[in-house]
Amino acid sequence: MLAAYAARVSPDTPLDALEVGERPEPEEREHWSTVEVRAASLNHHDLWSLRGVGLRSEQLPMILGTDAAGVAPDGTEVVVHGVVGADGHGVGPREPRTLLSERYPGTLAQLVSVPTANLLPKPPELTYTEAACLPTAYLTAYRMLFSVAALRPGQSVLVQGAGGGVATAAVVLGAAAGLEVTVTSRSGAKRERALSLGAAHAVETGARLPARVDAVVESVGQATWAHSVRSVKPGGTIAVCGATSGDAPPAELTRIFFQEIAVRGVTMGTREDLAALLAFCARTGVRPVIDSEVPLARVRDGLARLEAGAQTGKIVVVP
Ligand SMILES: NC(=O)c1ccc[n+]([C@@H]2O[C@H](COP(=O)([O-])OP(=O)(O)OC[C@H]3O[C@@H](n4cnc5c(N)ncnc54)[C@H](OP(=O)(O)O)[C@@H]3O)[C@@H](O)[C@H]2O)c1
């Protein structure tokens, strides 16, 4: 089958580690199902894998990709939850949590094998392309906003790095839930786009906000951390899921303890979070923001766009 995989690791030039070519089809395994992938989507995680973050050389070659929608062996339309091992279904009870493409081959392929418990029904209201955007970036944003920061309609949230996959997810989900969303971006065009997607305010990266916010969706890391700490209200929450620009900022501990700020880490979400997100999208009409679609054979173009930070929203890959 055709697949996109890390053939080696390349810390500084991730695309040098990418190959697109034939890989063996998944083998049958008890309590696992092989899904025919109809659409997958790219995440920054794929670039981290090519750089060798979380992938050891003995695990190579490794098929990339953490989310997909497709067809299960019984013909049903499904969405793949990409977190394996969190609850023991389909793997040993003591197996630590991993994401697809870390221990088990990922979704950037014609076929992917996952624990059967990781399959959720695809709502008929969503296309395969839309559904394939949800299980990583949208799931993470959903958990940050509603499970971890526990935001309610009328509250305010700052979303750092407006163009990213997680960030655009937080904008559209937050706006649909009645939150007052403020974004930052280095790009004027991306700030404009965020306003058109439902953000109430858009400022340059690092600019002072008109008022402090109830919570921050932080995925940028070093470049925005100090601004996040300064922008949240006393007692507010910073939900952090990534560190694209580096993870060694000053911790701003004095502000954190003096203002009693809660810092909460988030990695993806549970199967229940994903089911709730799918229902949210089906019922509200909210759809993921799609930057572009590329065929699997040309996934290099999509990853180059992601690496350059040129996208707004999700890049979908069609096998
Ligand atoms: N923990 C989890 O479960 C989880 C899930 C999903 C993602 N993540 C992590 O979250 C991060 C974002 O993921 P993604 O897929 O949304 O990535 P992405 O689509 O590549 O977005 C990254 C965004 O960060 C901003 N950015 C990058 N470098 C910056 C800098 N130096 N200064 C200011 N802003 C900068 C950019 O926004 P602007 O161009 O608009 O400024 C960019 O669009 C990644 O590190 C990823 O690994 C974690």
From TrEMBL:
SUPFAM superfamilies according to UniProt: GroES-like (SSF50129), NAD(P)-binding Rossmann-fold domains (SSF51735)
Spans traversing the lipid bilayer: none
Domain Enoyl reductase (ER), residue spans: 13-317
SMART domains: PKS_ER
Any GO molecular function: oxidoreductase activity
Signal peptide, first to last residue: none
Top-level taxon of origin: Bacteria
InterPro entries assigned: ADH-like_C, ADH-like_N, ER, GroES-like_sf, NAD(P)-bd_dom_sf, Zinc_ADH-like
Protein name: Zn-dependent oxidoreductase
